[in-house]
Amino acid sequence: MRQHPNPDPYEEEDLEVLGTPVYEGTGLSVRALTAQELQRFLDAHAGQPAHLVGSGWTAMDPSAHTLGASRTPAAAEHELAGPRSAEPADPVGGRFGSPGRSALAQYRHRRATELVAWARGLVWRTPLVAAAGVVVQVLATRAGLSRAGLLGLVVAGLLGWRLRFRPSNQARAWQRGAHGEQQTARILDRLGRDGYQILHDVAMPGSSANADHLVIGPSGVFVIDSKQWTGNVHQSSDGLVWHSHYRLDRTLATVRWQAETLGRLLGIPAAPLICVHGAHVQGGGVHAHGVAIVPAFLLRSALGFDRVLSDADVDLLAATAKSRLRPAA
């Protein structure tokens, strides 16, 4: 190969010596570092951890992939999939989805619908409030009371406050449900350090329903329904489970169906569980009709501590769930 003139002071040395050119071309010159330059580089980066750079390394390194995951480079996957509305999984805790999102969406939808209906009623509420203030003022004046005008304003204000917009109990129930899911998520997300992977608010396959939490970890697979309740949860002598004066037959059947459906999808039994916030649970926990009902502070214990799944099993099941399920909202 024809050598080009080289101004470098090391041009007389062998090509293998540090600092000599290894390639030169039009507009490009590549040479090895001199010993001094190499030492300066090492000193400047002392103590910094080494790591592979570029998505190409990821595609070439099988250890960087979970079991069953696609080996398409990340950039290519993004191009193929297009924009996604779903939240990505948390790389530390294995989190997937947003807890309470679909419940909050239901609350906001119901509140907006009720607000529109309430606004339509302003055509009669406003005159009613004004008329009430005038009537009270007239009566107070006839009675000889001082500050009759102020009294009329006070009455009008109180009536206006009474007729203000307030979401219905049904709408607020969705809001409380979302709050309960978020409280449960805070408990579950701490399990990431123990090898658990959590999917929040996932849509049930072939249904408009959703499962609040799908937990996959060393102690097994669990489908958890969060409840933000007041009062108490107890089981009567005939085996029925009650939330205060309301039977929970339908609630138990729903979470049991969710566990059976998701268990079939993953090819492994899933345990149904209800996590209760606020309400007192009889005996620290109730087990009825195949469903465990526990207070939130005992949720971690309810998941158990015996290892029944290996780390590879957990990764494979979580990858399957994340590829076949989607966030509910």
Helix and strand layout, with pairings?
Blueprint: E1 21-25, E2 28-31, H1 35-44, H2 55-60, H3 74-81, E3 95-96, H4 101-120, H5 122-142, H6 148-162, H7 169-189, E4 197-203, E5 210-217, E6 220-228, E7 232-235, E8 241-243, E9 246-247, H8 249-266, E10 271-277, E11 280-281, E12 286-288, E13 291-295, H9 299-303, H10 311-324
Parallel strand pairs: 3-4, 6-10, 7-11, 10-13
Antiparallel strand pairs: 1-2, 4-5, 5-6, 7-8, 8-9, 12-13
Task: Name the descriptors.
alpha/beta, Restriction Endonuclease, four-stranded mixed β-sheet, 10 helices, 42% helix, 19% strand, disordered N terminus
Report what the structure shows.
With about 325 residues, this protein is of the alpha/beta class. The protein has three domains: about 1-60, no CATH class; about 90-100 and about 170-325, 3-Layer(aba) Sandwich (Restriction Endonuclease); about 120-165. It has helices spanning about 35-45, 55-60, 75-80, 100-120, 120-140, 150-160, 170-190, 250-265, 300-305, 310-325, and strands at about 20-25, 30, 95, 195-205, 210-215, 220-230, 230-235, 240-245, 245, 270-275, 280, 285-290, 290-295. Strands 3-4-5-6-10-13-12 form a seven-stranded mixed sheet. Helix 4 (about 100-120) packs antiparallel against helix 7 and helix 5 packs antiparallel against helix 6. The longest helix is centred in the middle third of the chain and has 21 residues, at about 120-140. The radius of gyration is 33 Å and the shape is extended. The protein starts with 20 loop residues before the first strand and ends in a 5-residue tail after the last helix.
